[in-house]
Amino acid sequence: MADRPVAIAEKRLMDVKLGELGTWIGGRDFTPNGLIASLRKGHDRYYNKYINVKKGGIGGVAMLLVGYVALSYMWEYDHIKHDRWRKYH
Amino acid sequence: MASFFDQFMSPTLMGIPLMALAFVLPWLMFPNPAPRWINSRFLTLQSWFINRFTSQLLMPINVGGHNWALVLASLMIFLISLNMLGLLPYTFTPTTQLSLNMGLAMPLWLATVLIGLRNQPTAALGHLLPEGTPVPLIPVLIIIETISLFIRPLALGVRLTANLTAGHLLMQLIATAAFVLLPLMPTVAIVTSVVLLLLTILEVAVAMIQAYVFVLLMSLYLQENV
């Protein structure tokens, strides 16, 4: 079954061919509204796959929290790098 | 020189303050219930906790005070999630900032005082004099009770700030001590267990919110009840 023709800018990232990458990036919506919309969609997808299930375990929330810890580490790196054992700081 | 207080600095990423993000994060943890008969386990647990807490909180208040149910419940959820998220490594806890806690405490306390003074001024002023005081003591006691009334918002804000800041600082200190002692002495086993114990006790941050909302509540139903 042949795929229906979809505009390049509206394809999912994994379906975009390498040559079309430039067109794809150029066509995406980078306005604040667009960014927030993409964040919301990403969140909804994650939530519906891992948390909003009848018999969810601790995994869905745990992944979120670990991601938050990793993000906080990246943000605080500038402060934290002074905590290393060094003779001269 | 990196001090121990660096963990309380407002987080910035290349000059952009990330404080707003630290605030918004609890919002992610409390999703809307789906239009379904039975929700996910996560949501069921949350709704059970919230309902239980709210009914417990509103039991001693008469019906007039039930308008405050939403405010008090959301305050509790906000504080509890901020504090618990701050216990994770490398995260930032907004409630360690006095500005935030005073911003929460002062307006709410003022609201309770004004509501009491507006609806039942005699009773509200009457709270300043406990029953059965000997007559010569009355002037002194009124002054004392007024001072204690005005100190309430200060106490609310500072209590939350001080508890959380002290807890975080202590954890950092003890963890550093344990880390430093590791190559030197196996006393570390004892020190590490102290860290663990402290972390558990710090989940008493949860009790912190209880204390906060309960005190707020106390002011409220003192004003609005008979």
TrEMBL record, chain A:
GO biological process, one term: proton motive force-driven mitochondrial ATP synthesis
Keywords: ATP synthesis, CF(0), Hydrogen ion transport, Ion transport, Membrane, Mitochondrion, Transmembrane, Transmembrane helix, Transport
Membrane spanning residue stretches: 56-75
GO molecular function: proton-transporting ATP synthase activity, rotational mechanism
Subcellular localization, as worded in the UniProt entry: Mitochondrion membrane
Any one Pfam family match given in the protein's UniProt record, by short name: WRW
Highest taxon above the source species: Eukaryota
Keyword GTP-binding: no
GO cellular component, one term: proton-transporting ATP synthase complex
Similarity-based family: Belongs to the ATPase F chain family.
PANTHER family assigned: ATP SYNTHASE F CHAIN, MITOCHONDRIAL-RELATED (PTHR13080), ATP SYNTHASE SUBUNIT F, MITOCHONDRIAL (PTHR13080:SF17)
Name of the molecule in the record: ATP synthase subunit f, mitochondrial
Species whose genome carries this gene: Knipowitschia caucasica
From TrEMBL, chain B:
Gene assigned in the entry: ATP6
SUBUNIT field: Component of the ATP synthase complex composed at least of ATP5F1A/subunit alpha, ATP5F1B/subunit beta, ATP5MC1/subunit c (homooctomer), MT-ATP6/subunit a, MT-ATP8/subunit 8, ATP5ME/subunit e, ATP5MF/subunit f, ATP5MG/subunit g, ATP5MK/subunit k, ATP5MJ/subunit j, ATP5F1C/subunit gamma, ATP5F1D/subunit delta, ATP5F1E/subunit epsilon, ATP5PF/subunit F6, ATP5PB/subunit b, ATP5PD/subunit d, ATP5PO/subunit OSCP.
Entry protein name: ATP synthase subunit a
Pfam family of the protein (one): ATP-synt_A
Superkingdom to which the source organism belongs: Eukaryota
Membrane-crossing residue ranges in chain numbering: 12-30, 68-88, 100-117, 137-157, 169-191, 197-222
Compartments where located: Mitochondrion inner membrane
Keywords assigned by UniProt, alphabetized: ATP synthesis, CF(0), Hydrogen ion transport, Ion transport, Membrane, Mitochondrion, Mitochondrion inner membrane, Transmembrane, Transmembrane helix, Transport
Membrane topology of this protein: Multi-pass membrane protein
GO CC aspect terms: mitochondrial inner membrane; proton-transporting ATP synthase complex
Catalytic function, reaction form: H(+)(in) = H(+)(out)
Family: Belongs to the ATPase A chain family.
Matches recorded under PANTHER family: ATP SYNTHASE SUBUNIT A
